Amino acid sequence: MSYKIRFRKRVLSRLETGLSQCKAARLFGISRNTLADWLARRNRGEGLAPRKRAGKPKKIDPERLHAIIHKTPDIYGYEIAAELGCSCSAVYYALRRHGYILKKKPPPSRNATKSSANPSS
Questions:
Q1: How many helices (H) does the chain have, and how many strands (E)?
Q2: Is the pTM of this model over 0.70?
Q3: Which of 48, 60, 70, 121 could bond 8 through an S-S bridge, CB–CB 3.0 to 4.6 Å?
Q4: Who's near 23: CB < 8 A, 6+ residues apart?
Q5: How far apart are CA 12 and CA 36, in angstroms?
Q6: Closest CA to 26 of 34, 18, 38, 17
Q7: Band of the pLDDT at 12, cuts 50, 70, 90?
Q8: Largest CA distance in the chain
Q9: How far apart, in whole angstroms, are the C-alpha atoms of residue 85 and residue 108?
Q10: Average pLDDT for the chain
Q11: Torsion angle defined by CA atoms of residues 81, 83, 85 and 90, in that order, rounded to the nearest 10 degrees
């Protein structure tokens, strides 16, 4: 949530009248850390405007993802991740974002296969 600049100025003006940071934070319903951040930014001359938040860049090119899936439709998610150089969760979210449903699960590990093939009891 982002507070309006007018609100930030009003809170800081109350501090100049002698109100403590703790009481001002409680009075205006904001955290003390937020108030301390606003004070530090004002003292550094950065202004009180909300900072721009950088959205995460999309790592996966949709056309490349589409080409991989059409080239090998039975590919596993971890194989797509290895080919694209990203994480499995990034592949999962990209697939969902573009309307693909990945129903394959990776094969069980060697240890899990051995233990289920040779039950000890």
A1: 7, 0
A2: no
A3: 48
A4: none
A5: 10
A6: 34
A7: very high
A8: 78
A9: 23
A10: 84
A11: -30
